[in-house]
Amino acid sequence: MPLLENGRLVPDIWTILDEEAPFPATGPVIVPLSRLEEGLARAPGEKLGVAIPQDAEIDTLRTVLPRLSLVAVTFPIFRDGRAFSQARALREHLHFTGEIRATGKPLPDQYEFLLRCGVSTVDLPPGSDPEVWARAHTRFRTAYQPSVLGERAEGVTLRRVL
Amino acid sequence: MPDTIPAPALPVGHYGYDQVDRAFLADRVEQFRDQVARRIAGTLSEDEFKPLRLMNGLYLQLHAYMLRIAVPYGVLDSRQLRELAHIARTYDRDYGHFTTRQNLQFNWIKLEDTPDILARLADVDMHAIQTSGNCIRNVTCDQFAGAAQDELVDPRVHAEILRQWSTLHPEFTFLPRKFKIAISGSPNDRVAARFHDIGLVAKPAPDGGTQFDVFVGGGMGRTPIVGVHLRDDLPEEDLLAYLEAMVRVYNEYGRRDNIYKARIKILVQALGTEGYRQKVDAEFAAMNRARYRLPPETVAAIRARFGTPDLHAPDDAAAQLDRARRADPAFDRWVRTNTNPHRAPGYISAVISLKPAGGIPGDATSAQMDLIADLADRYAFGEIRVTHMQNLVLGHVRQDELYAVWQALRGADLAAANIGLIGDIIACPGLDYCSLANARSIPIAQKLSARFASPELQETIGPIEIKISGCINACGHHHAGHIGILGVDKKGEEYFQLTLGGSPGSDASVGQILGPALPEDATVDAIARLVDAYLVHRTGGERFLDTYRRLGAALFKDAVYATA
C-alpha cells in the first residue's frame, strides 16, 4: 500500500510478514509481535521491524528496541486512539529514534496528531487520496501544547510553531 | 443614568485572542469547510464525517442538526453574545439554549450553513471545537470566579490554560469516551467537581503560589459515581504534566468495548483509587517533565491577556442598594435570591434567571441576548457568565446600579426570583429534540415551574434543586438533584422515576430511587405532595436535602405513593 512520509508518497522497502509467511532470505521485514523472537534470530545486519497491536504495553519492547528499526502501530478503527499514546511512549519514554509507522484505518484529519505523537510514516488505507493527506499536513501553523517533535515555543506561551 | 463604561482593550473575564489565535481559528474553519465539502461530494462517508462534525460541535438530532458552541469556562463578552443573537436570528429559530456545560446550543441548523456560522463565530473569537466527540470537552468553571467573596484563587486563567492545552491535543482527541474537566477556586464547590472526569480545586500553596486538589472518576450517566480525591497538593508547574499522565493512563487502559463502561470512572473503579494512582505516578515519573512543565512565566503571559475590571464604586453604593430594597419588595426578594456577595466593596454579582415560570430552562431569545449584552456593556464591564445551572450572571455590578439592572431585566421576562429555588430547574432537551431520550423533560420542567410560580411560595420552600433527565444518560444531572426526575419508557408511555438526596456540591451524593416510576400526568402532583411533606417535617432553617438526610425516604415515599 502507498506509504506517506512528510506528506509525500515514498517507496516502501519493507516486507510485511503475517503470522505464517516464511522469512525472505534477506531484506528488511516487519514481523507481528508474536514472531518477534524469530525476527531477532535473523542475522544482526538485517533490518527488523515489529507490528504491535493497539493494546500492547510499550514497555515490553524496552530490551529489544535497540535491535528494531521500525515499530508499526495500528488503528483498527480511527476512533481507537491508543496508538497515539503508544507512539508517544516509544519516543518519549524509550527514546526510540527509528521509524514509527501507522497502519490500519487512520483518517487524513488525524495526520498532524500522528506526527506530533511521533509517527513518521503512514501506510495509507485503501482508497486514500494522498492530496487530502498532504493538505492536512500543512493545514495548521500553530498548536497549543508541546509534542514529541519539540517544536519551538512561541515566546513563553503554550503555543508551538508548526 | 450612569455613563456607559468604555470597553477595555482586553475582554474582561476571559482570554483575549491575538492574531496567532485568530489565524489558528481561521485554519480550523477552512478545515471544516473542506470536510463539509468532502461530505457533500460523497468522498467522506457519514461514518467518517461523524467524528469530524462532532469535533466541531455538530450533532444530528431528532429533527435537525444541532450546533453546540463552546463558551470557555462560561465567560462571554457582549460582542460575542450579540453575535450569538445574530446567528439565532439568521440561521436558527430566533433563540439559543444555554447548557449545563456552560455552552450554547442552536437546535435548528442546516449542515451547509455551518462553515459560515463557524466563520462568523471565529470573527468574535469563538468556536465549537471539542464540544462533542471522545475528547476533552469545554472546561467548566465557577460562575462567580474572580468576583466571589469566598474565592481563594481565580481559576479562570488555569481554565484557559487547560482550554489551550486540550485544543486539538494530538494524543487525547480519540479517547475511549468524552472527558469533562471542571475547575473551581472556592472551597464552596459550585462546579460539581466531584461529578467530573477530573475536578480541580485551586487554592493557595504554602509557598505563596497556587496548587490544586484533584478529584477523578466522578460522573453521572448510567453509573453515577462521586469522584475520588487523588491528591491535594498538585503544584501549578506540574498541572499539565500531571493531567497528561492522568489522561494517558485512561487512553491506554480505559475500556473501548462498551460505550457505557468507557468513561474514566469505570477504570478508576476497576483499578481502585490506589491502582489508578500508581499508574499515574509511574507515568508521571517516566515522562519528560521539563517538556510539560507549566512555568510561572507562561501563566503570567496568559493572565496578561485577560482584561480586569476597574472596580470603583461610590462610597454610598451599599446604602443606595438598601434604600432601593426597602422601597420595592419585589426587588428586595430578587436581591435575596438572585445575587452573590462580591469581593469588592460596593459590588455584587447578579444572576439572570433563564427559568421563567412555565418557560424552557436555559432558552434565551435573540432579543433577550441583545438586551443582556447591552446591560453587560453598561453595568458589568461587558462580561457575561453562563452557569452550569443554565442561567446567566453579570459578575461585577455596582450595588447602586443594581436596581436599574433589575428593572431592565424585568421588562424582558428575565427577572424570575428563583435562583437555587424550586423554579431553578435543570432539564435536558429530552424527547423534544434528542434522539436518545425516552421522555420529554421540558414539559415537566414547565409544569413544575408554573405550579410553583409564586415567588413567595418558592422562597418559603427554600433551597431545593430539581434536575430532570429524559433518559438514563443523565444530561439533566438527575442523580445530583435534591429531587431527581428520570424519564423512562414503559411500553411506549412516558413515565418518570424520582430520586431523592442527590447533591452536586462539596457534600456530593448520588440520589436514591424512591419507588416505581409515575405516569407523566401524576408526576407534578406527586412532587407537590413531596414538597408539602417536607414543609411539615422540616425543622429550623433546614433545606429539603437536610430533612431528607435526617429523616430518610419513608415519609416522602408515603407522600408520593399514598394517593398516586
Structure in a nutshell:
Chain A: This is DUF934 domain-containing protein. By secondary structure, chain A is of the alpha/beta class.
Commentary on this structure:
- The complex is a heterodimer of chains A (162) and B (564).
- In chain A, α2 (82-92) links the parallel β6 (70-75) and β7 (99-104).
- In chain A, the strands form 2 sheets. In chain A, strands 2-1-8-7-6-5-4-3 form an 8-stranded mixed beta sheet.
- With 162 residues, chain A is α/β, with parallel strands linked by helices.
- Chain A has a single domain, classed as TIM Barrel (Alpha-Beta Barrel).
- Chain A has 4 helices and 10 strands; from the N terminus they run ββββαββαβαβαββ.
- Chain B has 564 residues and is α+β, with helices and mostly antiparallel strands.
- Among the domains of chain B are: 140-303, Sulfite Reductase Hemoprotein, domain 1, CATH 3.30.413; 426-561, 2-Layer Sandwich (Sulfite Reductase Hemoprotein, domain 1), CATH 3.30.413.
- Helix content of chain B is 38%, strand content 17%.
- Chain B contains 18 helices and 21 strands.
- In chain B, the strands form 4 sheets. In chain B, strands 16, 17, 18, 19, 20 and 21 form a 6-stranded mixed beta sheet that branches.
- In chain B, β14 and β15 (392-398) form a beta hairpin.
- Chain B is globular and about 60 Å long.
- The model of chain B has no long low-confidence stretch (mean pLDDT 95).
- Chains A and B meet through α2, α3 and β9 of A and α1, α2, α5, α6 and α9 of B.
Secondary structure layout plus pairing:
The complex is a heterodimer of chains A (162) and B (564).
Chain A: E1 3-5, E2 8-10, E3 15-16, E4 29-32, H1 36-40, E5 48-51, E6 70-75, H2 82-92, E7 99-104, H3 111-116, E8 121-123, H4 130-138, E9 142-143, E10 160-161
Parallel strand pairs in A: 3-4, 4-5, 5-6, 6-7, 7-8
Antiparallel strand pairs in A: 1-2, 1-8, 9-10
Chain B: H1 19-41, H2 46-55, E1 58-60, E2 65-69, E3 75-77, H3 78-91, E4 95-98, E5 104-109, H4 114-123, E6 140-141, H5 156-166, E7 181-184, E8 198-204, E9 210-216, E10 228-235, H6 239-253, H7 264-286, H8 289-292, H9 296-303, H10 317-327, H11 329-338, E11 339-341, E12 347-352, E13 363-365, H12 366-379, E14 383-386, E15 392-398, H13 402-410, E16 426-427, H14 442-451, H15 455-461, E17 466-469, E18 483-490, E19 493-500, E20 512-513, E21 518-519, H16 520-537, H17 544-551, H18 554-561
Parallel strand pairs in B: 6-7, 7-8, 16-17, 17-18
Antiparallel strand pairs in B: 1-2, 2-5, 3-14, 4-5, 4-13, 8-9, 9-10, 11-12, 12-15, 14-15, 18-19, 19-20, 19-21
Protein name (chain A): DUF934 domain-containing protein
Pfam families (chain A): DUF934
InterPro entries (chain A): UCP030820
